[in-house]
Amino acid sequence: MRLIVGLGNPGREYEGTRHNSGFAVIDLLAKELKVDIDIKKFKGRYGKYKDAIILKPETYMNLSGECVLSIVNYFKIDVDDIIVVYDDMDLPVGKIRIRESGSSAGQKGMQNIIDLLHTKEIKRIRVGIGSHKEIDTKDFVLGKIGKEDAKLYDDAINKAKDALVFSLDHDFKDVMNRFNGQ
Fold first, then answer.
1. Where are the beta strands (DSSP E) in the chain?
2. In sequence order, which residues have a C-beta less than 8 Å from that of residue 2 and are 6 or more positions away?
């Protein structure tokens, strides 16, 4: 069993925010695969596609690991079979970066997952949201993408979704080779 996790915050007030980039990718993935993310358990919502669970934690970003750990334990998922998708302020809008492991680089949802699973060896797809020096970090990530960046951002969300679809039938190294830096 594999686990694909998109990070974000639940609730209408967070829909369309930069911090919900992981949710946006999961919503697009679910639509393409014709999967309903409607099973509500383990502090999240998920659906199943073949041998994969597609998950949106509902714990709020900073506690995402609680939901992930519950699913991992219940379904006995190996850490090597997890992919997490989330926003990254260190990447320009429109870029994605795919890695097999690493630090959270300050992304608190990813850090919580690393802490609770006791490993940095977690596959991830980071979606670039850029940054803004004059706007507080919290306000920036909880803000919406501006019209000037909308096309680039949508392209990144689609590339991340395509990488996840590709990952269902290919080795993760092949995913990285095909999609990294796009």
1. 2-6, 39-41, 44-49, 52-57, 82-88, 96-99, 123-128
2. 51, 52, 53, 77, 81, 82, 83, 168
Residue predicted with more confidence, 143 or 167: 167
Q: Report angle CA 126, 129, 132 to the nearest 5 degrees.
A: 140
Strands 44-49 vs 39-41: parallel, antiparallel or unpaired: antiparallel
Measure the CA–CA gap between 70 and 163, rounded to whole angstroms.
Answer: 25
108-117 and 64-75 helices, crossing angle to 10°: 40
For tokens 């939901």, the residue is 67
Q: What is the pLDDT of residues 35-92, one digit of tens each?
A: 999 999 999 999 999 999 999 999 999 999 999 999 999 999 999 999 999 999 999 9
- What is the β-pairing status of strands 44-49 and 52-57? antiparallel
* Integer Cα distance of 125 and 169 in angstroms: 17
Q: Which domain holds residue 54?
A: 2-179
Active site residue 19: yes
Here the CATH number for the domain that contains residue 173 is 3.40.50.1470
pTM over 0.90: yes
Task: Report the number of distinct structural domains present in the chain.
Answer: 1
Give the span between the Cα atoms of 109 and 65, in whole angstroms. Answer: 7
Q: Where are the alpha helices (DSSP H) in 50-118?
A: 64-75, 108-117
Catalytic entry in 19, 118, 132, 170? 19
